[in-house]
Write a structure and sequence with these properties.
Helices cover 70% and strands 0% of the residues. By secondary structure, it is mainly α.
Length: 218
Amino acid sequence: AGELGWQHWGLALGVLRDMRRRGVQQDGATLCSCMSACERAQRWPQSLDLLSRSRDGGLPGSVVLCSNAINACSRGEHWPLAAEILRRMRCSRAGPNRITYNAAVAACGAAREGRLVEELMRAMQGSSLEPNAITFSAAMSASEWQRSSLLLETLCGRGVEVDAVARGTVTSSLGRGQRWQEALALSAGAEQERPAPDDAVLCALIGACAQGRQWELV
């Protein structure tokens, strides 16, 4: 099952069923491979079923298994399920790590659940896990332009290199808030650090100017 790609998620599940019929022990690595295939194929119900079977079979709910399930829920736009998986992990001995928190923040961020994203970031820090650039980028996508700008300032203040994803996310947020001037200023500052802007940042900047009806700048 571990050698099958995500396009063959159905075949991977068939292999697992055959293993169960034959009484072959399914280890965590096998389940992780199948869950990863289901996640990338956006088959979140199957991922959750595998997670449930791993617990019923006595396998610990490992961080990797739970992270795969959260990612699957994120791809399927089912952020409440992702948040619930994380909540259960926090109540168990297999506590979440930074990767798991980032997956949950990304799921809630994609749904623009800003309040929940902030709660997750506070819980993350309460577990002695510092948010990284991935965490901040995911949180920015859920925030209004004021909060996104503040998160960007915090990230820069920590000396963390800000990538194109983070800048593009903040630029898009500024565009939604009709703050095209700030979007241009952010782009100008980025050009001083990197002469050739990333395509994602340029697209976000064009969108910000268009939403501000600054057609001559587009």
